[in-house]
Amino acid sequence: MGTKYRHEWKHVINAADRIAIRQRLRAVARPDPHTVDGKYMIRSLYFDDLNDTALREKIDGVNLREKFRIRYYNGDTSRIHLEKKCKTNGLCSKFSAALTRGEAQSIADGRIEWMRDDGRPLVKELYVKMRNRGLKPKTIVDYTREPFIFGPGNVRVTIDYDIRTGMNGTDFLNPDCITVPAGDAAIILEVKWDEYLPDIIRDAVDLKGRRAEAFSKYAACRIYG
């Protein structure tokens, strides 16, 4: 099966936008079933190389780019995933592999030799890039997400806020690790879909002529180093 690409656009919105869009989405879409009270907390550990390639390519708007992260939700370290997100000419794809807590901690600590012969292609790919390109954990990114789903078009709309950074810390499995607000309190509206975006969702997320703009939570969280 070939790589599945999805359309994606992001927009920085304000508090009034968030209230209005949330109300419109509640009327036409449904919350992701994994939420608690309509939201969940996301913690990610992002990787980059010695030259900060992922950061620089994002800032420069390079058409072909990728980034690795390890992620879990609502503080539940029994379900952790390694993810690679790729962007090709504005289309996105994501690859994922489940990790145990011990495996995630080993990667964060730089103990990676076990990955060389691992049977999961994504784990082995990360190992090769950590060995050959100097890829390593760079920063923790925390935020709250309100996700909505809509069946036709396989649409997913998310509102992300309270973005926090672990600065240079990588102790992401420690619930008490310190994070701080990542600069200005941005609120991010993100819309993803497959072949088409239904008009009912397009209308629900309409921002009255304002254009979508690039935003990277990872880049925002690297402001401290």
TrEMBL record:
* One example of a Gene Ontology biological process annotation: polyphosphate biosynthetic process
Q: Which residues form the VTC domain?
A: 6-221
Under InterPro entries, the record lists: VTC_domain, VTC_sf
Lineage of this protein's species?
A: Bacteria, Bacillati, Bacillota, Clostridia, Lachnospirales
Put simply, this protein is called VTC domain-containing protein
Q: Species name for this entry?
A: [Clostridium] aminophilum
Any single Pfam family the record assigns to this protein: VTC
| Annotated transmembrane regions | none
